Amino acid sequence: MTRALRAAVIGCGNIADNHAAAYRDLTGVELVACTDVSPDRAERFAARHGTSAVGPDELFGLDLDLVSVCTPHPTHESVVTRAAAHGVHVLCEKPIAVELGSAARMVAACEAAGVALGVAFQRRFWPAAQRIRDAIDDGTLGTPVLGHASVLLHRDTSYYTADAWRGSWASDGGGVLMTQAVHNIDLLQWFMGDAVEVTANHTTVKHGEAIEVEDTAVATLRFASGGLATLAASTALTPGLGTRVRVLGGTGASAGLAEYPEGSEARIDVWAVPGAEAAESPFGPGFRADLTLPEINGSLAPLHTLQIVDFVNAVREDRDPAVTGREAAKSLAILTALYASAASGRPEQVPALKEEITS
Ligand SMILES: NC(=O)c1ccc[n+]([C@@H]2O[C@H](COP(=O)([O-])OP(=O)(O)OC[C@H]3O[C@@H](n4cnc5c(N)ncnc54)[C@H](O)[C@@H]3O)[C@@H](O)[C@H]2O)c1
After folding, report:
1. Fewer Cβ within 10 Å of end Cβ, the chain: N or C?
2. Whose CA is nearest to atom 7 of ligand 1?
3. pLDDT, tens digit, for every residue of 194-222?
4. Are 9 and 45 in contact, with CB atoms under 8 Å apart?
5. Domain containing 73: what range?
6. Is 327 contained in some domain?
7. C-alpha of residue 61 to centroid of ligand 1, in Å
8. How many angstroms is it from 75 CA to the middle of ligand 1?
9. CATH of the domain at 36
């Protein structure tokens, strides 16, 4: 019998519970430890999940096989490269990093060490998202020619003030685009292929007293295939209207998914395929109050579990995880161009990670 994989969680904040719960419940995986720069947080987390809290320096003496990195985005590079240097496989939370050079160094460090680097884009594991991806692969939709993502969410100002790292360019890397819409940008590019050029505009309409980053943005994207997409994103809504991603394919057929309320499993709201047409309200049975942040994160747990199962199997089978560091860097490259375009007022090219790695 193969021995259990030894897992640990780094960063014991909001989203870390989803990772710990998945490791705890999986057979063949042992949640050996957790760590946090705040020892109190690590202790409370360890007690909740029946594991041991250790200091960051002790962690890599524990003969670990894999870690989940659940620290704020700007710290991902230092934590991930440290894990790689110890020969430990890494599943990192999204976004992979806040600048593309960081992502390139993370990918290069993991590739040089021969460890897997996965990035949590668990919304790809929605059955609705997989159905759309399959309909692209099997030709039902054809090559996507037009896409749209809307990310119309609610955040209380207290969300931004609760943790010191949120809401500044230096420590958060951006606002609604970087932290919330990155999931939908990832889905758009997963469906439509590599993006090559974008235009963007952003503003701060509601949370300006608490944050310097954007809470509202619009963008256009052009893809290598010739396809085009639009994006609208905001955390200024009360109540939020959830998220939607729609794709029109070259066959003329189109499909869309809706996540409402935020955090719930997305459903196909439009399936406009000749002979199989179906539609339902993106809001399901009706409007619902926004979930609290812990409820949103909690309802994402089954999807984190699906991605963690894939990651653990990738480590066991010595294959790439479903979302690699290189794949996750694509949404960061788009974000880099979106912020550049909003600053320059001009269309901007989407930079390639390959150039970053070799430069
Ligand atoms: N996949 C998703 O849907 C999803 C949802 C929420 C958050 N996230 C991502 O997860 C990450 C964490 O977000 P959060 O909301 O849980 O943040 P959080 O602030 O609640 O938790 C972060 C924790 O990391 C600790 N920490 C900071 N630097 C550290 C370091 N160098 N070493 C060890 N611990 C460190 C902090 O003390 C804190 O306890 C972010 O990148 C965020 O974008 C992803």
Report:
1. N
2. 15
3. 999 999 999 999 999 999 999 999 999 99
4. yes
5. 5-121+304-322
6. no
7. 23
8. 9
9. 3.40.50.720
